[in-house]
Each structure stands twice: as C-alpha cells, then as structure tokens.
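Structure ticket #2291
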Amino acid sequence: MLAAGLTAAFGVVVLLWPRALAGAVGLDLPAARGVTEARVSLGAIWVGLGGYVLLNPVPPASHVLCAGYAAMALVRLGAMAWDRSVDRSNLATLAVEVVLVLMLA
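Resolution: structure written out below.
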C-alpha cells in the first residue's frame, strides 16, 4: 500500500507542478501543450495507477503496478547505457524503481 500511495502522491505533484518536476529530470516544457502532456502522461497515469491499487488492494492490481516499475527499471538500465546518461539522477530514480518493485512483489 505504501508503494501505491507514493505512486499516487508523485502523480499529484506532477499534476500541480509539472514544470518543476520536468526541470528536475532534465525535460524542457517551453510550450503550454508540453505542460499539458506532462500533467497527463507523467501525472494522471501515476494518480490513476496508484489510486486504483489503493482502492483495490488485491494482488492483481499491485502486480500490474509492480510490472510497470520493473519495466521502467529495465528500460532505464538499457537507456542509460545506450544514451550514455549514467548520472546521479538516473541512478537515484533507478534505485527508487527497484525499491518499489520489491515493495510490490
């Protein structure tokens, strides 16, 4: 439940402050359309997934969230190598993704 709550909370933060979060991870949102997309693709999806698991705390729901974080961690590993973007921020995010997988597994 903690992982689902953290997921939903992260989504709320992105919904409220998309430019601040985007800047923290190296994204630039110069146009209003980009801000809207960040709210939707980075905010609403996390609110929806985390909120669903909070409201339906059954294994299938948490397994879907776990699979999502596992996929993100695996893609991040590959992308960091491919893009040569190994840095503190990416490593910290990878660590969070792995911890959330372990919490949800």
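Closing remark: The CA atoms of residues 14 and 43 lie 5 Å apart.
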